[in-house]
């Protein structure tokens, strides 16, 4: 008997709610959350001050708004967020908003970065970060008070301290624009966001429990658990997330029925309507993975093939290898091995030499199933084509 497919792959490939957070809070829960009083700042080194506009902060002034953001010189997303932070600080300059970025690295490390040129902006890091307060706190006291206390486990992470000195928002600085605007304009619903934030922090634990239940073949318990999560979801987006998981469980445990088939057909229709080829390709490859565990997929391979094919005009060149490979997979599931081999041949033809070498065995397998034989001359020609194929597709599809 084939093993049940772990939900880990499905969780990664499913159409989940974006931006779900994970937490490393202690078993007793985080001591810093939305609505908590913001800890005072005990920062050792203030290295940029907004070109003299700002002063070092220890206590938070009433009626002012502060962004305490944690970053590091080695953190790519932190580097990518810097121009955005500069724009935000300039946008709110003079409106009682102060952005303070904190790293646990020493000043020597930070100064080494400041002298370099930002890879996208054509300016030095010193020029970009001069818009707001850049600081260094090697003893990690501020990080402990904020990051550790809240259970946050990734950077960049920003904490918005509101006009009354309470934590109003926690998240990635790239998602901060609308919350910050609402907080500045006294239009922020802290209580509503707290419910959402604390629910998101429970999501990782819930997903791990679901995966364990399915992995140990406690299918009935898994279904009951998901049904309960749907009932408790605080908003429609979370209901949608758990509804998706409900049907994923049915699919991966071999319980595909009319309800679940129609659910996935609806998702495919949305992908086509929204012209979302990446979602369609991801779903198709997830479906193929499920098929390898012996699950009955009903008409879903045919339905998925139709959607992916309809989206061909929207496929960027960098995804063409993946597109044709996916067409091959869906045709194989439909036992149309001739069309599968034709699609895989196009994929191999567009691939880099290294990709083509990896993909060729699958093409050979499909040709064998289709009863197609390749003579030696064609094989030699294929090797020559591989040498030129590197110019046709990006390695990042690997």
Q: According to CATH, what is the topology of the domain at 45-199?
A: Glutaredoxin
CATH superfamily of the domain at 45-199: Glutaredoxin
Helix content: 40-55%
Low-confidence stretches: 1-27, 375-398
The sequence of SSEs as H and E is HEEHEHHEHEEHHHHHHHHHHHH
Largest sheet: 6 strands, mixed
Radius of gyration: 26 Å
Average the pLDDT over all residues and give the rounded result.
Answer: 86
Strand order across the largest sheet: 1-4-3-2-5-6
Key descriptive features of the protein:
398 residues, alpha/beta, Glutaredoxin, 6-stranded mixed beta sheet, 17 helices, 8% strand, disordered N terminus
Can you describe what's shown?
Residues 366-398 are annotated as: Disordered. One of its GO terms (molecular function) is oxidoreductase activity. The protein is α/β, with parallel strands linked by helices and 398 residues long. Among the domains are: 1-21 and 202-255, no CATH class; 45-199, Glutaredoxin. The chain has 17 helices and 6 strands. The chain has a 6-stranded mixed sheet with strand order 1-4-3-2-5-6, sandwiched between helices. Strand 2, helix 2 (76-91) and strand 3 (97-103) form a beta-alpha-beta unit. The chain starts with 6 loop residues before the first helix and ends in a 10-residue tail after the last helix.
Q: How does the SSE layout of this entry go?
A:
Blueprint: H1 7-13, E1 45-49, E2 65-70, H2 76-91, E3 97-103, H3 107-114, H4 125-129, E4 133-136, H5 141-150, E5 157-161, E6 167-171, H6 177-184, H7 190-201, H8 203-215, H9 219-232, H10 236-252, H11 258-273, H12 277-291, H13 300-310, H14 320-333, H15 337-350, H16 353-370, H17 376-388
Parallel strand pairs: 2-3, 3-4
Antiparallel strand pairs: 1-4, 2-5, 5-6
Helix pairs in contact: 8-9, 9-10, 11-13, 12-13, 12-14, 13-14, 14-15, 15-16, 16-17
